[in-house]
Every structure is written in C-alpha cells, then in structure tokens.
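Amino acid chain:
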Amino acid sequence: MTERELARRVRHRLAALRQAEEVSGNIAATCRYYSISRQCSYTRRRRYEAEGLGGLKNCSSAPLYALPETAVGMTVMTDGTT
C-alpha cells in the first residue's frame, strides 16, 4: 500500500471521528454511515486520543502471543481403533 493510500485512510478515519464528536454527536449513526462497527470506532478514538494521527494508521492484527514452538508441530496420531 502506498503512502498516499495510507494518508487517505487516516483522513477518512479522522473524518469519521470528527463527524461523531462535532457534527452528529451520535456514534451509532456515524458508524452506520461509515460502515464501521461501534467497537471499531471506540478503538480508533481511544488510539487517536493516546497517539494522535499515528494512532489512526493501520496496525497489525496478529495475535499478541504465539503458541510455544513445541506445540506448533505436534499432531495426534491414531490408528483408527478405539
């Protein structure tokens, strides 16, 4: 994704936050208009308040933890009999 596309997404997310706070005052209506969930809206607002515009950039959706190396390759083998 190019820098221009990232900047466009940040502007779009900022517009949604401003719409909810300054214009409508209604989070649910704003989320319906922008086709985002309220949970997403609250997450973006919290990140924006904490980090500024940098908080509106894409961030990883990878899990915060990973399985231990030993558990990744483990499989259960059965011979089909009980």
